[in-house]
Amino acid sequence: KKDAEANRFTRHEVKNGLLSAIGLVDSMKELVGKPKSNKSTPALQRIDQRLAGISEEKTSSGAPQLESEQSDGEMASLVSDLDATLREMLETIQAEAMARDVVHEVYEPSRERINVLETLERAKAESKLSAARFPIRTIPEPFPLLCLDPQLLRFIHRNAISNAMKYGKPGGVIRTEVYFDFIRSEMQMKVINLPGHLHDQLVA
Question: Which stretches of sequence are listed as region Disordered (predicted)?
Fold first, then answer.
C-alpha cells in the first residue's frame, strides 16, 4: 500500500512538472508569435548590438547576413516540437498511471455522454496520426451517443494502436472498427493490422 501511494505521489509530481513546463511553452509560443516591440531593455539592446556586429563582420567577409525571419521561424518550430514532446510525455505518464489503477481496480471512471467517433478522431489528430493509415469506422452510422469515460476510451484505443504498430505489418494500414449492439447495449472496438514479424511472440 505504501509503495502504491509513493508511486501515485511520484506520478502526480511528474505530471505537475510537465504541466508547468507546457504552460511555459505556451507563453513562449505567444511571445514568438508577437511582433517585435520598439521598446527594448538594456540587456536586449546589448544583444541587438552584438548581433549587429556579427552581421557586419559576416557582411564584410562576404558571408550572408543573418536572416531574422528565418531565425524566428526556426525558433517557432523548435518551440512547437518541444510542446509536442512534453504533451506526448504527459499522455504516456497518464496512460501508464491509468493502466496501473485499472489493473489494481482502484480507477474511478468519470462518465459523460460522448460522441465516440469525434473523441477517437480528436485523439488521433492530437497524436498526429494520418487519416489514410489510421482510418476509423463506426457501425452503425450514425453511431449513438454513449455514456463513457472519454479518457479511458482514448487510452484503451492508444494502447491498441501501439500494439498494432509494434506487432503488426510495418507501415501497414491500421483500421479501427467500433460496433454497438443495441440488443446487449454493448460496444466493441477492434484495432486491426496485418501480422508482422513480432506477431508470433504475441500469440506464443
Answer: 54-74
